[in-house]
Design brief:
Mean pLDDT: 86
CATH topology of the largest domain: Jelly Rolls
Strand content: over 45%
Shape: rod-shaped
Distance between the termini: 107 Å
Order of helices and strands: EEEEEEHEEEEEEEEEEEEEEEEEE
Radius of gyration: 41 Å
Largest sheet: 10 strands, antiparallel
Length: 291
């Protein structure tokens, strides 16, 4: 019985093209990232020779190796003008900022006109000192005090600036005024207006009554604004508002206070205390405002 040679009945992959290999019909090779199929048996004819080879697929454009582009924890992968690129991690607290269409992203630092400078937890003591908080960075400062409770009855709250050498500003050049209204459970109001002129501190009276600074249901809260306290060519001035409620539910009070140190001198902080006994406070926070 005769033997019939059918040749190759299916394509055979032969790997990368080799000039010394004899190829027959339907052999498939690769070269330069493309693939070719033999259409005429031969040896030593390059795949570019269309007499012997037909291209099956063309090599594409090489992609970016992401594993070698971003190499460090915190890297960000983005596309620049030509391809994928690496943005290294920024510093702690920064945020990722876009430059808009046609620009690359970048890290930037959060900027705010209002910045928290001091934040104290609740505490007790004879004096609260906020030193080294006034600097040239800010022009205006806002102080918030919550639940300030004196130890004794009819207590006066004292305020002094701290000078740039760290000592209290005690000389008698404080000028101030206080407008105060006290509303009692019995139905009458007690309005007081007082001034401090040439004192060694600024003063305002906390609501009368027998306070016990271990009890938190009563207390006084206020806010005070300071303007340019670091400047040495103008007076250091402040203005504020306060409100308080007696713990035995007998009276409520509110007031407005303002004052100045009538000598052009720079200050770096302030202190609060009472004319008698110690105090307890809920929280004291200071913010600086850039101009």
């Amino acid at each position: 019985m005769a033997t019939v040679n059918l040749g190759v009945i299916k394509p055979v992959f032969k790997g990368a093209y080799n000039n010394s290999t004899a190829y027959v019909l339907d052999n498939i090779v690769t070269s330069g990232g493309s693939s070719y199929i033999c259409i005429l048996a031969s040896q030593g004819n390059a795949v570019s020779n269309s007499t012997y080879w037909t291209q099956m697929s063309a090599a594409g454009t090489d992609g970016t190796d992401i594993g070698t582009t971003i190499t460090t924890q915190g890297d960000v992968l983005y596309r620049d003008g030509s391809g994928l690129a690496r943005l290294p991690a920024g510093t702690s607290g920064q945020y990722l900022k876009t430059g808009g269409s046609g620009a690359n992203p970048s890290w930037d630092t959060v900027s705010s006109d209002w910045v928290k400078i001091l934040s104290s937890a609740s505490g007790t003591g004879s004096t609260f000192v906020a030193d080294n908080i006034f600097t040239t960075t800010y022009k205006t400062y806002k102080v918030f005090v919550t639940n300030l409770i004196p130890w004794d009855d009819n207590t006066v709250c004292y305020f002094q600036y701290i000078k740039t050498d760290g000592s209290a500003q005690t000389s008698g050049n404080y000028k101030g005024m206080v407008g105060h209204t006290e509303t009692h459970a019995s139905g009458y109001n007690n309005d007081q207006n007082r001034r401090n002129w040439g004192q060694g501190e600024l003063q305002w009276t906390i609501a009368g009554g027998s306070y016990d600074n271990t009890v938190s249901t009563g207390g006084n809260s206020f806010d005070v604004t300071f303007w340019d306290p670091i400047r040495s060519d103008t007076y250091s001035m402040y203005v504020g508002n306060y409100v308080g409620f007696r713990e035995d539910n007998s009276n409520f009070h509110q007031g407005h206070l303002a004052g100045a140190y009538q000598v052009a001198e720079a200050h770096r902080g302030f202190k609060l205390w009472f004319n008698s006994g110690s105090m307890r406070y809920g929280h004291i926070t200071v913010y600086g405002l850039k101009h």
